[in-house]
Every structure is written in C-alpha cells, then in structure tokens.
Design a protein that fits this description.
The complex is a heterodimer.
Chain A (H helix, E strand, L loop, with lengths): L2 H17 L4 H17 L8 H32 L7 H15 L3 H12 L3 H25 L3 H9 L4 H35 L8 H9 L3 H29 L1
Helix pairs in contact in A: 3-6, 3-8, 3-10, 4-6, 5-6, 6-8, 7-8, 8-10, 9-10
Chain B lengths: L1 E10 L3 E11 L4 E5 L6 H8 L7 E6 L2 E2 L5 H8 L2 E4 L11 H6 L8 H5 L5 H13 L15 H14 L4 E5 L7 H18 L2 E5 L3 H7 L2 E6 L2 E6 L6 H8 L6
Parallel strand pairs in B: 3-8, 3-9, 6-7, 7-8
Antiparallel strand pairs in B: 1-2, 1-4, 4-5, 9-10
Helix pairs in contact in B: 5-6, 6-7
The chains are: A mainly alpha, B alpha/beta.
Chain lengths: 246, 248
C-alpha cells in the first residue's frame, strides 16, 4: 500500500519528462555550444561599461520607486485582507482581488504597461508597483493575522476607536515585519527589473538583450558583470538593514 | 456600580460559558472571584466591558447600559472600566510611557492621537499613574525590557490612566511568583482604599483571595455558587467551588 504514492509519483514524473521533450542527449550535444558562448564573452568589452552602469542605476531606480509606492499602497489593502481586523464584507472581496492580481507576474504587467504608456522606465515602474502592491498586501495581511491579540484587547478595553486600536495595538507589532518584507521585495524586484528591459520597460535588460541580438558577446559579458555586481550590492545593503530591524 | 442580571454567554456552536449570572457590586467594593479553570471567571470579566459579547442578559456599569450600547456609547463606558490581564498585554516594542498613554486614548482627540500626539494634560495623567505604581523612573524604557512584575505594574498604570470607576483584573498574578503576587495585590488594595475604586479580581489562589477580598464570589460551571464575605468561606464552600463531584 505504501508503494502506491511512489508509483504514482514515478508515472507522473515520466509523463512530465515525455511531455516537455526533456532530452539529456540534446543537452549534452548543446554543451560545446554553451562553452563557445562563454568563450566568446572573453575578454569582456569594457568600453560599454559607462552605459551599462547608467542602465544599472536606472534599474535600481525602477525597483526603488516601484517598491516604495507599492509599500504604501499595500498598507490599506493589507489591513482589509486580514481576517482578524477586517469585517467579512471587506475581507473576502479583498482576498479575491489580491489572489487575482498576484497570479500575474511583473514581466506580464510590463508588457501591458509598455503598450499603454510607451517604452522606457516608466512602464517598468508601473509593472513593479502592480505586482508588488498585491504581493506585499498579502504578506502584510499574514503578519497582521499572526499578531498577539492581547495588546489589541487591552487597547480596545481603554475605549479606543477602531483606528486607534489598529494604530496602537496592531501597528507596533507588525511594523518591523512590514519593513523587513519591503526590503525583501526590493531585493527580488531588482532581479525582476533586470529583465524588464527585454520587453522595452527600461533598465539594464535592454542592453543585455540588444548585445545578445547583435551577437556582441563581449559587450553582453560586461552588462552581465554589472548586473551581478548591482544585485550583490543591493542584497548586501538590504540584508544589513533587515538584520537591524529584528 | 456593576449590575449584572441574567447574564448568559454561549460560544458558537453551543458551549455555555455563563449560564444566567445575577450579581450586583457596589461602589468601593473589593471583590475576588474564585473558580476552577473554565468556570466562567474570565468570560464574566470580559463580558462586563463587552470584550466578549453577551448572548442574553443586561449589564450596567456606573449607571450606564453596557449591553445594547452603540459603538460610541460603548467606548465611553469602556473608558470608565480599567482592565488588567494575566499576560499584561503591553505593546512590547513601545515605551513604558506610551503604554500608559494608551489609557488616555478614550479621551484623546482621534486624529492627533493617530500620529502619536497627546495633550499635555494626558501626559501629566500618564506620568502621575506611573508614579502611583512606583515606576516613574522607567518611563522611557521599552516595555519588553521590564520584568514581569514591572510589566504588570505598567498595565495597572495604564488602567489607572483611564481615570476609571472600576478596575477588572483577570488573574493578574497568575504569571508571577508569590512575592510579586503580594506586590500586585497590595497595589490593587491601595487603589481601592485610597481612590475608592471598585475592584473585581479573579484569583486562582484561595489564600490570596481571602487575605484581600471584602467579598468572595464563587463560580462553578458558568453559575454563581457562592457570594459572601471571606469569613463565610468554610471548607464546605471551598469544596462547593473546587470539587468536580467525582470524589463525593
């Protein structure tokens, strides 16, 4: 009897391998080509470093502005999506909206916003805001649902209004968590923003895609190195900040 | 001061926590509630300021209806009812003074309070109350850096800052050692004696109850089973309150 789940898992995996045309032989045949790809990247062409650096800064700006706006927009959404503070009439619609919007990734939003407002960093910012607002609201609401109800009771018992209870009983408990989530989202948004340029939504992804298309691998190598450095710097700063919050 | 008639609390789906309680407590009394875990002590105290919603019955505090009061009236009655909890229920990351200031929320103007602004008079009241429990020197400390006994004194100061007519204390010493139990109960007795506040405390320690109470109220399975002075608490009464019936 205990073997049945294992058998089912093997069958499903086998079907997945077949249906996705997963083929180790094809991968092995492609290996020399991949080595060739990396060989052509060296030496990197550092003449494109200034423009790549400017684009990297632009990418950080997209993530920073988008995350900041989303962090604020997510606040009311987070509270109305928390089962223990929101009235059911608000809670259920809010949860539904969150799950709907969160099911679409930043890159898909970027395609929509590029079509709406044209090429450049601005649709990138909008895409980051659209995805991050709902994902942060979900994280916020889970933090709110995990609070100690004791202080909420105590503040309620003083004759405080609902808003005062949220401000004095709930917010002090969740604020450090909120800030930590925002920083974590900033880190993931930097990564998401690197590919926004692929669809014309600004930042360093545009250069990477352009050089790859021009088969200028040594220039693409420089862009990749700048991207790696940028992500590492932001991760480092952000993790330092997060460590101080807890 | 507190008039409870026919109080019944049923928790969904069908747990009867309180089953028809009538009790009148007069101004300035120090009442201790005894009973086993689950007898309804906590539910009774929390129903008085409607942290628990009564299923049936009426409650009046300080001459005003608690049951049936709309949101605004309920808040204004709650201001007059200070509450102290077993787990202190301080906002741990906030300062001691901010915790006591929370006791003024029912009086503070809403919008300024939301950005943390309180009237100077509210701050004076809060600091006075901190001094009253002997912790004025800790006003700037973060609440979670204090010991358990100190946190409970801060919680009492928060209740006092409401300038209440009544203080309800739900097992205020259950998380504390015997010496701190005495400290906390002494503070409550002094508040009762010096300020004339009505005090209702639930206690699981019989000796402590007998030492401090003017009046003992016993709960058993959601009903009153004793009401009288400490001198009337005989071994038979103690059995009536605590025995589960299986030994008889």
């Amino acid at each position: 009897m205990t073997r049945a789940p294992l058998f089912v898992a093997v069958v499903v995996l086998a079907w997945l391998v077949w249906d996705t045309s997963a083929d180790p032989v094809a991968l092995a045949r492609g290996l020399p080509w991949m080595f060739e790809f990396f060989r052509r990247m060296f030496p990197p062409d550092f003449s494109v470093l200034p423009s790549a650096a400017v684009a990297a800064v632009r990418t950080v700006e997209i993530a920073l502005l988008g995350t900041t706006v989303a962090a604020v927009l997510a606040l009311p959404l987070g509270f109305v999506s928390a089962r223990n503070v929101a009235a059911p009439a608000l809670f259920y619609p809010a949860r539904g909206v969150l799950n709907l919007f969160r099911s679409v990734d930043t890159l898909v939003y970027a395609l929509v916003f590029v079509a709406a407002v044209g090429l450049g960093p601005f649709p990138g910012v909008l895409a980051v805001v659209a995805y991050t607002t709902t994902s942060l609201a979900k994280l916020y609401s889970e933090a709110i649902e995990g609070i100690d109800p004791g202080p909420v009771d105590a503040i309620t018992a003083t004759g405080a209004t609902r808003l005062q209870v949220l401000r004095f009983g709930v917010l002090p408990q969740v604020l450090p968590l909120f800030l930590s989530y925002v920083l974590y989202r900033l880190e993931t948004n930097i990564r998401a923003a690197t590919v926004l340029g692929f669809v014309g939504a600004g930042g360093i992804g545009f250069y990477l895609q352009t050089y790859l298309r021009m088969i200028d691998y040594s220039a693409a190598a420089t862009v990749l190195l700048v991207t790696v450095a940028m992500v590492m710097i932001v991760d480092f700063v952000s993790s330092k900040l997060r460590a101080r919050l807890i | 001061m507190i008039e409870v008639t026919g109080l019944r609390v049923v928790r969904p789906p069908d747990t009867v926590a309180l089953d028809g309680v009538d009790l009148t407590i007069t101004v300035g009394e120090f009442v201790v509630i005894l009973g086993r875990s689950g007898a309804g002590k906590t539910t009774f105290l929390r129903a008085i300021n409607r942290l628990v919603e009564p299923t049936a019955g009426t409650i009046r505090v300080d001459g005003r209806d608690v049951t049936g009061a709309g949101p605004a009236r309920l808040r204004s009655v709650r201001r007059r009812i200070g509450m102290v909890f077993q787990q202190f229920n301080l906002v741990r990351r906030a300062t001691v003074l901010d915790n006591v200031l929370a006791g003024r929320l029912g009086y503070a103007a809403q919008l300024p309070s939301l950005i943390g602004r309180f009237a100077g008079s509210d701050r004076v009241v809060a600091l006075d109350c901190l001094d009253a429990v002997g912790l004025g020197h800790l006003a700037r400390r973060r609440a979670d850096t204090l010991s358990g006994g100190e946190q409970q004194r801060v919680a009492i100061a928060r209740a006092l800052a409401q300038t209440p007519a009544v203080i309800l204390a739900d097992e205020p010493t259950a998380s504390l050692d015997p010496q701190l139990t005495t400290t906390i109960m002494d503070i409550l007795r002094d508040i009762n004696a010096d300020r004339g506040l009505t005090i209702v405390v639930s206690q699981h320690q019989l000796e402590v109850a007998l030492r401090y109470a003017h009046r003992i109220v016993g709960f058993r399975a959601g009903r009153l089973c004793f009401d009288g002075p400490p001198s009337a608490v005989t071994p038979a009464v103690v059995r009536e309150i605590y025995d589960d019936g299986s030994a008889a």
